[in-house]
Predict the structure.
Amino acid sequence: MEQATTSRRIILFGQQNLQNSILIGFIHQRTNIDCQLISTPEWSNDWSAFEGQTLALIDAECGRPERLQDLLEQIFDQNENIQVAFFNTQSSSPIERLMAWPMVNGIFYKESSQQQLVKGITAIFEGEFWLSRRILAQYLERTRSKPRKVTHNANLLTRREKQILNLTATGATNTEIAEHLSVSMHTVKTHIYNLFKKIDVSNRIQAVNWAKDNLEDLVQESAV
């Protein structure tokens, strides 16, 4: 058991009080993972140096959402591999929005028991998420959109033809494309003729619209 947990660490960010002291003792007893309590004034300290897995367990009641977001910024800047979970969270709290951060993998509510907290912590260390179905549904509703359609047609074009189509999408003229690629005007015209034929279009607008639907790396900018 000890060999499996010696490379893990839990840092609890919260108030220096009896409740949190008892909590980290309970977590250590049930998981055999070293726990450290860091109170609010010490958040600016460099506490991130650790080679193993770290879970930052943040008390949702120890600061305003803006202050907690600042802590997430600090965690991400110092070590983006640290996982984060909030506890003591109120249902429908602004804290739930912080799950959009890439390292926030768990949210525990005030009504969660200590046993549920330990179970969730163990799951997070094993690479799982500990989030309610309601939060996941709301997050998907906010973030999902129609994906760009990428078809096998993209493979019809050569690398050079894709370059020319990409430049065409920026509004570049044939002369500008030739100068940018250091090729002759005749070469550019030949490539354009071939790619138009391959994708079955007759003008630049149709070609750019095709590229939007079929090329993931299309870049649209001002003219070259």
